[in-house]
Amino acid sequence: MVKDEAGNGIELATVRLQGTASMVMTNLKGQYNIYCNMGDSVTVVFSQLGHQTRKKTLIAFGDSMRVDVVLPPYNQTDETAVVKGMGIQSGSMVRLNTKNNDFAPSASGNAVEELVATQAGVSTHNELSSQYNVRGGSFDENCVYLNGVEVYRPMLVRSGEQEGLSIINSDMVDKISFSTGGFEARYGDKMSSVLDITYKRPEKFEAKLNGSILGGSAYIGWGNKHFSFMSSVRYKTTKYLLGSTDTEGEYDPKFLDYQAYLSWRPSKRWTIDVIGNISDNEYNFIPKNRVTNFGTIDNPRTFVVYFDGQEKDYFKTYFGSATVTHNFNPNTYLALNFSTFKSKEAETYDIQGEYWLNEATSQEELGVGTYMEHARNRLRANVMNTGLKFRTRLTGHTIQSGFDWQHEDIKENSREWEMRDSMGYSLPYDPNQLRLIYSLAAQQELKTNRLSFYLQDNWRFKNSMGLFNLAYGIRVSHWDWNKETLISPRASLGLMPSFSDNWVFRVATGVYYQAPFYKELRDTAMLNGIASVSLNKDIKAQRSIHFVIGGDYTFRLMNRPFKFTTEAYYKALSNLIPYNVDNLRIIYYGRNMSKGYAAGLDFKLFGEFVPGTDSWITFSIMSTKEKINGKTVPRPTDQRYNLSLYFTDYFPGSTRWRVTLKAALAAGLPFGAPRTGLEGKSFRAPAYKRVDLGMSYRLLNNEDRHIHSGIGKYMKNVWLGVDAFNLLGISNVNSYYWVTDITNTQYAVPNYLTGRRINARFVIEF
Fold first, then answer.
1. Cα 4 to Cα 29, 386, 435, 458, 501, distances in angstroms
2. By C-alpha distance, which of 762, 614, 586 is closest to 215?
3. CA 341: distance to chain centroid?
């Protein structure tokens, strides 16, 4: 047997004969059998991820011999060398390392989502936002869980400038699991991805203090075997970053977040977990002027605007969750959960702009006019959920099931309009009356209930081909709004072949439904620039059938571990609800009008390019299209290629200096004139190119507690850092403002994202 220090068998430990190709893995009880041709001696090597490697040399034994070995965890040291291995991914979820959050430069302040955005198949085009696209899916197709509870985000946010802090607090995170497709039945009704976050339960005192030009945070945690508590407050402001954009003015964004997590284990049988989050996000802006230079060398343009008015937005959200878990034994539990999400949102602005569009060299006027934008948009949302989850482990099987009831209560009252005057004429031009180019009025209320159930089994078994991990299950859901019942079977299979412990192969398939949430229900009818909104009772869930095949190859290069991963996928899409993207706001058609596909290849090379640090490079190619009104068009997320680099390094001869480099190169997305529909998205935005560099210096290292006096004895680490955001000073296009002259000629004026900025920061760990 291969055991841990408590005497429990270690499953899937590797047992091999040194110098030969003979290798086996332990079963779920830690037992193994291995055969060899006996010589004078044989050396047996025992290893498992997270444990120290052990070797035993056997000399001149008989026909058989029993060898039991104990593998200590890594955190114990002795004279035995420790061999670092690579994580084995036999299922659809990949584990991301939380230590990569601490030193990476972060413009949005949402470190976990920025880490996710560097993975294969994931892309982002806005450094101010935590939103990301996965394999051709929209922002709304990504499911996020916090300690097993699905979380939501505000619905009126339309730009990265307005977006505050994510609910995920990186200081409190223990585990990050992520899937880009083919995920299990226990994960909810989304079509693209799953991000599963587990918070830690500290068993001793710990604290951290962060500060930078962009804000700061304070975290404290304490606990023992029966009780743990974490609390954190965060503050963020993007005023400094927004000062690098083309539009000058008085920016006053304030994003404040408080979060607490309590876990009480009164006995081995019972656990009570409570999470609370309060988020208060305000975005105030008084624009002054804007100068944008764009075009080509042969055809340069200058766009000048003088503004009047202001914008005031707020997004207040509240999240709470309580879970009571009864552990019948170490392998079986039943958990009852209650959660609620409340959001109070308001978007109000009155902004007038007088603009000139000139030829840059001759200053010839190509267009002159004025516009005025007005909005009074308010929304209240309340989502309550009650769930019951069960899990047990039998011989070779892990069975999970769950049931959820969810109630949604959403109220919206929106008023928007836009007036344009070009060359003295109001657009659209009408000699008999003054008309607005766009107006919308919506006053809606939605109260619905959803029921969902899942049952799945993870079965591990071994035969002559190798070790298999089969996850299969079914998910059933019902929504009383449209009386639709959905059945979603899903399955994945992983194989670690017996011929080599360097390879892992995976296949997955499943039917993934995405029942509409409030935004998808809004059926907006446009007539002569006047929009009317109604909630569609006949709408159906969107469907995506996943086919995924891939594998990993682990190897050692320069005596350091590496892993190369590749996956190919195809998603058959039907009952699609088309949408347009305006910055971060997704505007749906409100009807099932199209079908399509998404197909691509993802590659990732992960490893220690520099000893002791994790780095990776990813490359993806993809195509996603849909057929609407008889015409096949690219979907708004049709990103043909995406290259991402995450690289860490230490200065030669010193572990005090640490450097983190993040780079992204992503193909431009389709775009077109506003309110032209997907058929009018005939242009491509320039590629998104960005490089961020972070450098950290370890001012104090007291992890071994060698400092016994002064304030230093209370500290664990002190880091000072400097970040260079957008190191190369590239002007990335976020969206376009369209200028129309009296001849109805339209000019797409780019709205650029943030420029180069230097950020100073510090981290103190107690």
1. 11, 38, 77, 23, 22
2. 762
3. 19
Query: Letter for the amino acid at 591?
Result: R
If phi > 0 it is left, if psi is from -120 to 50 it is alpha, else beta; for residue 726 that is left
Quote the distance between the C-alpha of residue 294 and its chain's center.
32
Q: pLDDT for 408-459, tens place per residue?
A: 999 999 999 988 886 666 667 677 777 788 888 889 999 999 999 999 999 9
Nearest to 168, CA basis, from 125, 192, 199:
199
Residue 78's pLDDT is what?
A: 41
- Give dist(CA 107, CA 116) in Å, integer: 14
Distance CA 391, CA 404 (A): 15
What order of strands is seen across the sheet that includes strand 23-25? 23-25, 14-17, 41-47, 54-59
Give yes or no for residue 232 having a pLDDT over 80: yes
The distance of Cα 649 from the centroid of its chain, to the nearest Å, equals: 24
Across the range 721-727, mean pLDDT stands at: 95
The C-alpha atoms of residue 571 and residue 585 are separated, in whole angstroms, by 24
- How many Å apart are CA 743 and CA 599, to the nearest integer? 41
Q: Which has the closest alpha carbon to 696: 111, 106, 103?
A: 103
Are the C-beta atoms of 569 and 600 separated by less than 8 Å?
yes
Burial of 66 (0-12, 13-18, 19+ CB in 10 A): exposed
Phi, psi of 454 (to 5 degrees): -140, 155
Residue 210 CA to residue 763 CA, distance in Å, equals: 5
B/e letters for 719-752, b = 16+ CB within 10 Å, e = fewer, are bebebbbbbeebbbbbbbbebbbeeeeebbbbbb
Length of the chain counted residue by residue: 766
List CB contacts of 704: < 8 A, sequence separation 6 or more: none
- In single-letter form, the type of residue at position 404 comes to D
- Residues of 299-329 as b/e, b for ≥16 C-beta within 10 angstroms? eebbbbbebeeebebbbbbebbbbbebebee
CA nearest 486: which of 535, 444, 451, 438? 451
Q: What is the pLDDT of residue 608?
A: 83
Quick check: 276 and 259 in contact, CB under 8 A? yes
HEC profile of 655-684: CCEEEEEEEEEECCCEECCCCCCHHHCCEE
List the end-to-end C-alpha distance of the chain, in Å, as a whole number.
41
Strands (E) located in 265-299: 270-295
Per-residue pLDDT band for 60 (boundaries 50, 70, 90) equals low
Give me the residue label for tokens 């296949």.
507
**Strand ranges inside 360-437, DSSP E:** 365-394, 397-422, 425-427
Tokens of 643: 């290259």
Round to whole Å and give the CA distance between 632 and 626.
6
Cα 744 to Cα 737: distance, rounded to the nearest angstrom: 15
Question: Residue 112 contacts by C-beta under 8 Å, 6 or more apart in sequence?
Answer: 101, 166, 168, 170, 173, 176, 195, 197
- What Cα–Cα distance (Å) separates residue 342 from each residue in 86, 149, 335, 756? 41, 14, 23, 37
Residue with tokens 């680099």: 645
Strands (E), 18-97: 23-25, 41-47, 54-59, 69-70, 94-96
438 CB-contact burial (10 Å; exposed 0-12 / middle 13-18 / buried 19+): middle
Coil vs helix vs strand at 483:
coil
